[in-house]
Design a protein that fits this description.
about 120 residues
């Protein structure tokens, strides 16, 4: 719900946000989608392969990001517009979140007992 609000709230809701640089919103997209990917991957059944979880989530998250970008300009008086670079930032965030998940999952995997027995 919070992500939906961030992505669909009128631009006026963010007027008081101090901008450090012009493309700051792209970093926000990257972080939001990276975090959402990370959390969602941890919640999916462990019986699914890591590749299966990531490919399914990649598809769903990209469709979600594209849907948000398509809906933004349709909202009345939103002051928001669809931007390809937002979708690119979403995709990079998804990849970063997936990579972070893999790195953390590898550190928590039980040791392989290949001692010859």
């Amino acid at each position: 719900m919070f992500v939906n609000w961030l992505m669909l709230a009128p631009g006026a809701a963010f007027e008081n946000v101090h901008m450090l640089f012009s493309q700051q919103d792209k970093i926000a997209h990257l972080g939001i989608f990276g975090g959402l990917t990370e959390l969602t991957l941890w919640s999916l059944p462990a019986q699914w392969t890591l590749r299966g979880r990531f490919l399914m989530l990649l598809t769903v998250m990209l469709v979600y990001g594209a849907g948000i970008e398509l809906v933004q300009p349709l909202l009345p008086d939103s002051g928001r517009s669809a931007e390809w670079m937002d979708l690119v930032a979403d995709a990079i965030g998804i990849a970063v979140g997936g990579g972070l998940f893999r790195a953390l999952a590898d550190t928590q995997a039980p040791p392989d007992n290949n001692d010859g027995n």
